[in-house]
Amino acid sequence: MFKGFSHSVMGASHEKRNLVCQDASAYKVGNGFAVAVVADGHGSKKHFRSNIGSKSAVEATLETIERFYSDPDEFDKNFPKNNKSIISNIQKQIISAWNVKVQQHLKNNPVTAEEKKPFTKEEFENIPEESYYGTTLVAAVAGRGYTFGFQIGDGSLVAVFEDGETSMLMDYEESNPANITSSMCNANAASMFDCFYVETKPLLALFVSTDGLYTSFGSENDFLDYHTIIASQLTDPAKFEAAVIANMKKRSHYGTEDDISISCVYDSDLVKEKINVLRAKVAENKQKAADRKARLLNK
Q1: Domains in the chain, number
Q2: Residue 157 belongs to a domain with what CATH number?
Q3: Given CB 3.0 to 4.6 Å as the disulfide criterion, which of 35, 116, 134, 146 pairs with 47?
Q4: Rounded CA separation 139/160 (Å)
Q5: Cβ–Cβ under 8 Å, residues 263 and 58
Q6: pLDDT in tens, 188-238
Q7: How far apart are CA 95 and CA 92, in angstroms?
Q8: Largest CA distance in the chain
Q9: Are strands 194-198 and 23-30 parallel, antiparallel or unpaired?
Q10: Which range marks the domain in which residue 233 is found?
Q11: DSSP letters of 196-249?
Q12: Which one has a higher pLDDT value, 143 or 296?
């Protein structure tokens, strides 16, 4: 049985500048699928409504995935042999739904004089309307015997398997200046997604997070080990949620000072069954981390 969790926290740098949190996160467990999604609004000058853009991206993703799974048996019948074209279609429909949402928001909330204030008249007129809402997006879907996901822009996706192994199923994309990064607001956004599809060994959990989490770690090994640790806490959801939120707040204030979002879906029955495997993996990773540190100190 899949369950889920999601949360977003504001970074210290945004608090200092009196900005809103520009991240959004959510999850959904549906009939035949479970999806985790996060989005990170760019927050730079011309993306002055990116907090709305990230929320709209998350909503568009959940709605689109649920619509594709309206008949889960039919979806599962077609998806394995046509996964590339179906994922591409999902991405296009998410972009389309996002554009509808942000245009509706703009129609209901015209740009104010205060929002135009940082720009000259010419500068403002040269900004495409969708750029006001620019955001990244990362989503992961657990199906029946397979996993797929996609992202546009930076962020991370981590799978934890029944043997305690973790894997980033897509390469981490380094952040670029917001005016050139892959973004939902780009005219060719549908062609800028990275994606994957795998027929998986039993999956314990899928985690997606915005770049504020990844960049708060010293290495990819530490980042992956963190996911093994938090996966081992999923047998007690209340304790897990409190611990993860506290850790996110700490990292957002004493790490990169960026907003941080995380969302996950997990097989609660399999987590309970494999809890000793996870705990053993946590101990193994801790020893490996100590060995890596010792080797560095002895160089």
Answers
A1: 1
A2: 3.60.40.10
A3: 134
A4: 15
A5: no
A6: 999 999 999 998 778 999 999 999 999 999 899 999 999 999 999 999 999
A7: 5
A8: 62
A9: unpaired
A10: 2-297
A11: EEE-PSPEEEEEEE-HHHHTTSSSHHHHHHHHHHHHTTTTSHHHHHHHHHHHHH
A12: 143
